[in-house]
C-alpha cells in the first residue's frame, strides 16, 4: 500500500478540544487519530455509535444487520493491540464502518436484498472486507440495498425501505442507499459502496455526503459467493467509500485498495502522482444532451466552478462527447447480461416494484444478439477514446450527478416513457460508469430542503486528483449536515 498522503487539505491530527462533543459526530480521520493517541478507546467509540444507531436506525432503517458481539470483541482486541503493539495499528484502527449487503462478510448472509439469498452465507470475507479489516476497521453493520442492488431506490422484501433523513418522501438513493444514510446521520464514520450506474454517487447526492466511485480494478472485487462476473461487472462496476468529507474518503480509499490475488481484475496502479495537488483545466458541462438540467443543479455547478477558479483552476464550458451513445452502450452490454438471469430472478420474487423497475429498464434498452453485444463492446472503446481526448485537454470534468433534484419514491415504476426520461436524467452517472471512469459526488448544500451536489470525473486511476478538487469545493461550501437528525 502507498505511504500516507499528506496533502494540505488532509487534516489528520485535529485537537480533541476542537472536536464535537459526541464521538459519533467525529470524522473518520479524527477517530483514527484520537484512537492512535489513546485519547479515546475503541470500545468507547463503538459504544457511541451503537447508541446513535439505537436512537435513529429504527426510523431510518439504513443498517439492517448487526453482529454486536463480534463488533465488541473487535473493539476489545483493537484496544489490546494498542497497549501491546501500537505500531501494528492500521490506518482505520477502531473506525466503525458499514458494509453493503452485496459483498461477502464471513459468516453472514450476502442477501443483496433478495429473500432467495437469505441463507447464502459467505464462507470468507470478500477482498474489500478483508482489506478493511486489515486496516483496523470495525465492521458494525450491513447497509440496506434494493434487490440485486439494481435500483436508485433502496427498499426490498427482506428489510423494507431505507428513508432519506432530509425528507421521507424522497428516495434515499440506490443501490448504496443504506450506506449513504448511515454515514450522513452519524451511524458510522465510513461506509462501503458499489457503483455500476451511479450506485455510490447518487445515494451520496440525495443524502448530502461525499461518494467516491473508484476506477474499476482499483479496489479488488472478489466475492466467494459469486461464481461468475460478466463483462459489464468487470469493466464498469467499482467499489469505493462514502464519507462526510474528502479526507475521510481518502482514508477509506487507502484501506480498500490493497492487493488481493483472488481478484483477476485488480490493477496494481499507483495512487499518487506528482500533479495530484495541481490546479488544472476543468471542463464545465452544464448542458446534457437528451435532457434538461434543473436550474438548481446549474447553480450548484457554477458555484463549484467558481470555488475551483478561486483556487487557480481554469474553467471552460464544454460538451460531453456522445453521452447518449455511452448510455446506449451501457444498456446494450449490461441489460443484455441482465436478461441472462436477473429478470427471471426478479420475476420469481414477491416484489412488484423490482419486477417493474427491471422490466422498465430492459424495455428501454436495445435487444441485441451476440454480434450486437460484441459490437457494443467495440463501440465502448471508440467512445472511451473520445473521452480520453476530452480528459487530455481537461484533466477534470465538472458535470451533474443527476440532471434532476432528488426524486420521489417510485420514479422508476411509471411508464416506459417516464423511465426513458429518468435514464436520460441519470445519463451523467451511467455514461461515466459505462466507460470505466472514476467519479466523485460532492455535496453543495440544500435547495428547497433537498440536497444538491455536483460530480467530478477524471481519467483512470486519478482518484487523488478528484479528491483534491473535491476538497477545494468542500472548503468553499461547508455547513451542510444531517447529523442533527432526530427520529420522530
UniProtKB/TrEMBL annotation:
Signal peptide: none annotated. Residues 44-467 form the Amidase domain. Pfam families: Amidase. Belongs to the amidase family. This is Amidase.
